[in-house]
Design a protein that fits this description.
Helix content: 40-55%
Number of strands: 7
Structural class: mainly alpha
Oligomer: single chain
Largest sheet: 3 strands, mixed
Amino acid sequence: NSSLLKILSIPKETLPLFATLCGNDYITFLLKYKKFINQLNTYKCRHQSTNNIKNEFFKNISNFILDIYENVNKLCDEKLDPQKKLKLYTEELLKMKKKENNKVLEDECQSKIIESIKEYSLTTLNENNISFIKNEIIKSYRNGKIYETILNVLYNNQFKCIQYFEDISKESCWNISSEERKETFKFLLKRNYSSGNNRNNNNNNVNEMNTEVEKNKDNNQRENNSNQDKKTKKNNENRDRNIQRKFIINELIRKDNVVIEEPININIVLNEPLPIYVEDRFDLYLNTYKSNINRIKRLPYYLIPVASCLRSFLITKIKSDSFIYREKDKNEKSIYTNIVNTFSKNNNKNNNKKSSSSSSSSSSPPNISNTSTQLYDYEFEGLLASCVAAMTLTFFHRKVYNRIFNPTTANKKKNQNHTIKNRNVYSLKSNIMCNNNIGCNNSYDNIKYHKKRSLVLEEHWCIKDICDYKDDFENAVQIYAEFLSLLISNSNTLQVLNLGNDFPELLSLYSMYHYIWKDAFYSMLKKKDLFRHKKNNKIYYIFFVFKELFKYNEEKVEDENYLMFLEKNYANIIKSILF
């Protein structure tokens, strides 16, 4: 925050105002509030401290905020409670802003400004009475290891299911991750309220854990000195083990075309804390996403979040009979046969349907219900392919590929040894040790040194494509929104289980930006025939999909080995999901 404040030249307590005025999920200035956005675009800059801000819009906002700050401090006591001061800043902002011509629009704008500032208010969390939230959780929040959106579950007993671009005639895209969210809420409540979590949070510190073990040994010796004390303690433990605490978490979630508040009931046993050891917490994470299997654990750690999301996504669709795939012929199994037979309620009864194989849809996809969204095999494979393409900005960037596979590099043998070792690695610690040699854990460095993805689309998804592939697109919009909700839920679970505290390498995965490239996914619809090729455990034809859809971002570069490298990683992930 200190670096940001220095650049913006504004006081710390006004940061929620800046975050709001920049535009966010609450405020869409450019679309609606013309008077206000015009005021900010043309605001007079009179504060010399802001002269170094290069972006004119941000400079104007900083000046606007500094004027608000001066006006409030002329009239109020500097010793005021920060929360009360923020309220005064908000009131002054509403006085100074230009009013919209339409009263309804103006009321809406003011309401969203107030709500946004409240959401971004760091002082609200830091200064209020928050003794009910454990210090280690507050410390994680201040260090960026747990985000405010999930912390709000403790602070306000509320979780906001952010609205994505989706079809409002379908059920909410957040329904797909309801089980995972509920488990994550339970983990967070256990972390905060269970009695065993009073211990020091740095559970990866071996010395501290050994000290704790020694203390427990001493306690046991003292208890054994008195049979009566032992019986008393056992009775107390049995009593505590049965003590449950009930919570109600209110989810703000879309239903049809309105947002409703839906209560989620959660019970926790106060004597059942989260595990101390990181590997046990990692297993909880994998279990939550139906992915605690050796094939997933053997993947490089940076592929586990996307693989676990996609596996959970697929299994949920199979269980609800909403996954549609094509069998090849009577004598050959589909790559999906095993997982469908394992998880389908009807033993494949509804899943042997055939979807259209034409490159453009001529009829609407069949639906089992009016509101559920069906997942087609080519959509599932396209999702994974888009994630692999997205990772050409980071872990699959061409520079990373060259460092690993270029024969002239000194690290080739070292990287090959890592790959060989990793085949039998199942612990998170060993996984990170084996795969943390490619240097993509810093988002700033990824953008600075990689600059952009190694692959770019030959043709961007456009209005004409939407018209040509209308039916496919309508279904794909909802599928991608559901996938995003699972990614966010996955991130929240990583945060709540505090895995990034034990392994900082995981912190860069919290944003999930590595795996997101929406246009690439939509573009896959144009090549869905390529996903219909005969597949086996070794060949998935992603090479040809990439070759037709993408080009290299560097001129005069053609390297089919790089595309084969991407296809190999694609195959590695999909096999870990399906087999």
